[in-house]
From TrEMBL:
<dbReference type="Pfam" id="PF14310">
    <property type="entry name" value="Fn3-like"/>
</dbReference>
<dbReference type="InterPro" id="IPR011658">
    <property type="entry name" value="PA14_dom"/>
</dbReference>
<dbReference type="InterPro" id="IPR026891">
    <property type="entry name" value="Fn3-like"/>
</dbReference>
<dbReference type="Pfam" id="PF01915">
    <property type="entry name" value="Glyco_hydro_3_C"/>
</dbReference>
<feature type="signal peptide">
    <location>
        <begin position="1"/>
        <end position="25"/>
    </location>
</feature>
<keyword id="KW-0378">Hydrolase</keyword>
<dbReference type="InterPro" id="IPR017853">
    <property type="entry name" value="GH"/>
</dbReference>
<dbReference type="Pfam" id="PF07691">
    <property type="entry name" value="PA14"/>
</dbReference>
<dbReference type="GO" id="GO:0046556">
    <property type="term" value="F:alpha-L-arabinofuranosidase activity"/>
</dbReference>
<dbReference type="InterPro" id="IPR037524">
    <property type="entry name" value="PA14/GLEYA"/>
</dbReference>
<keyword id="KW-0732">Signal</keyword>
<protein>
    <submittedName>
        <fullName>Glycoside hydrolase family 3 C-terminal domain-containing protein</fullName>
    </submittedName>
</protein>
<dbReference type="GO" id="GO:0045493">
    <property type="term" value="P:xylan catabolic process"/>
</dbReference>
<dbReference type="InterPro" id="IPR044993">
    <property type="entry name" value="BXL"/>
</dbReference>
<dbReference type="Pfam" id="PF00933">
    <property type="entry name" value="Glyco_hydro_3"/>
</dbReference>
<dbReference type="InterPro" id="IPR013783">
    <property type="entry name" value="Ig-like_fold"/>
</dbReference>
<dbReference type="InterPro" id="IPR002772">
    <property type="entry name" value="Glyco_hydro_3_C"/>
</dbReference>
Amino acid sequence: MGSRRQVRVALGLIGLLSMVVPAAAATAADQASERAGKLVAQMTPAEKIAQLQSAAPAIPRLGIPAYEWWSEGLHGFARSGEATVFPQAIGLAASWDPALLHAVGGVVAAQARDKFMATGLHQDHPRYNGLTIWSPNINIFRDPRWGRGQETYGEDPRLTAALAVAFIEGLQGSDPSHPTVIATPKHFAVHSGPEPGRHGFDVDVSPHDLEDTYLPAFRAAIVEAQAGSVMCAYNAIRGVPACALPWLLGERLRHDWSFKGYVVTDCDAVDDMTKFHYYRKDNAGSAASALRAGTDLNCGVAYDGLRAALAHGDISEHDLDTAATRLFAARYRLGMFDAQATRPRIDAAADRALALRAAGESIVLLKNRDSTLPLKPGVRLAVVGPNADALSVLEANYHGTARHPVTPLEGLRQQLGSQRVGYAQGAALAEGVPVPVPVTALRVGDGSDTPGLKGEYFRSTDLSGSPVATRIDSKIDMDTDHAPPVHALGAGGYSVRWTGQLLPPGPGNYTLVVRQDRCFDCKGHDPVRLYVDGRLLITSTGDNEASAANIAIADARPRDIRVEWQHSGEDQGIHLQWIAPADAQLAEARRVADQADVVVAFVGLSPDVEGEELKVDVPGFLGGDRTDIGLPATQRRLLESVAASGKPLVVVLMSGSAVALNWANEHADAILAAWYPGEQGGVAIAQTLAGVLNPSGRLPVTFYRDARDLPPFIDYGMKGRTYRYFRGEPLYAFGDGLSYTRFAYGAPSVSSAQLKAGDPLDATVSVRNSGARAGDEVVQVYLAYPDAANAPQRALVGFQRVSLAPGEQRDVTFRLDARALSLVDADGVRAVREGRYQLFAGGHQPSPGQVPATFTISGHADVAR
């Protein structure tokens, strides 16, 4: 009896705290707004307008330092020097693990605050040095052709919502009145390409699709996770730009969802309203429309037009006060004006371990014929493919500078021993797309057979003086964004000379490329020179991101090579690349395959061909998007060539989106999807292939067989898209993923076979590890609806990741509330509707013969928007 009384008392205290904590948070928020209002009241109209732009200037007379609002943290704190680089967002989504996303968000926030505090609490803070993180991207990945889909959590609203909530809560921390950082879910709303027209396209989305697909994750981010900010999108919705849309930013966001934070534009979105949407004749009109609609902060300078708008009476000073108060309330909540604050403790080893865990959980095993994997002890590998040893496919986009990046080739050599791992690049990524000159084509020379190039690093920007460091670099493929390539140098000016020999795999026409990673708002690129056999082939004075030279090579003898780089600007990396003759590369790959027991081919895409508004126009790719969802022809030929060796073939897909691996699905022995796996990706892949890790990822997107199975890319209607509305046969289904063990399920049960509309439902299923090794299973619950117009075929309504030892069995229970049981009608009204429902539970989508639990709902219950 005593223990029961203690439980009742504890529950009573919890109930009291649940009332006290929100009240305390509200009081703190009110205090921040009150302080902000008093500060704003002391500003002139011109000062207020300047504060509504992302590069907010200092106001010394009020003790306000300059603050640039733009910082990134999509999968690690980004663009501000060394930081932990986690798997790209789509890879994190493949974990189906909210707890992991929460932990990753916490690391991103801690590293952001650490860098902010290192600059100084009351100092000016430049771009990418702030506490306002413009992440996560929670747009629905509706079509695999979209290049930025890699930044999202996939195609499903519920999975996206759950992961977004976890990540945002990890970013902002447990104290809503004093967040670690402020999260900014984006792009609000209905934004997912095409990239070439993103600054001016209009979406005529149906009310049903808007409520059913495009808004749920944003609602969860605001209502459940209490995100402190949101970013409005470039596109228009039914003729009105999103950043000037009153019903979206006012009625839905602030009224229906009770949003109290601030709205920021995507960069230059207000300017786009004038130049591309032709919404208003000038930026004064566009800026006034955005401000009145509820957009507080402009990324860019178009809000300068508010000066003219104020003079013409199109806005009031009260409008300025409202927006500026919201912004300064956020800065007060973040502690930017506190007398003192402490830097967080950064545990680099723990963060690296989390990156490894994230990479491991993201890997999806799609095929494993005759238990090809895990690899047998003592196996000799042939590693081939353009993604086996490339930095870009680890880091993806919106990334920090990885402290300890490990490529798949490096990871396998560490795991199995270098003597058991042969390597040949084998192919270009796609026709006309250069890839890093591989270590097999470089050696130090001067009588040495050591692979790589000798790198000499100078503190001067003109290669003068003695080098402060000399080392062997396996290749020139470096990320130097706000971080020097060696610690003896500063992050600013320095120079590097690489010397050695180029070993072509065979005769033919080669294109050598030196590419420098762009930086935003740069005045130019670093000078660079490339010499082959003493002849100057490339000299860049800083005008281009990439400089190329064609060279005809008649034989495979070594050529002397020298690269000189004068890092005097803001470039963020340097890469020595090539396009090598296809026949020579294929022959080299076949020779390596013939000497091995198993071939592991690292194929796929890269951030060089899929991404944000890229300058790419080659077969299969356009402007960052894809026109063909198949594996590029160069890589298909590579797979066919090495498969002809007769050796078992393991395909590892590294990409930010689904790729139609039709040939590999039929001919390869095993297939893994590893995404863009972050700095520890090579370790995780190697450990998974070797069986140290048991793969447990699940697909967050559908893998279609052909783009022709889909509606036109520009069509935002959901009919025929994603697993919920696609009627065809996919190559791999959303939710798919295999394991090295097996899981068995009992029939699911529900708490009631007769349910009143609006009441919750509990569903329970028993899952058992029936295999011989421990593993993680992702238990998935899908709902099939009565014959209702606009209803999806099925929809994910719950999921849980569980770890089970061999033979272990567990009952997993899900609480399905009214929202989870609801449907959206043609008018966009969400409600629980009467009818007979089927509930399926298992490790994948419902399959033929699977026994569901059935229940009937009586009555009707509206669900809040």
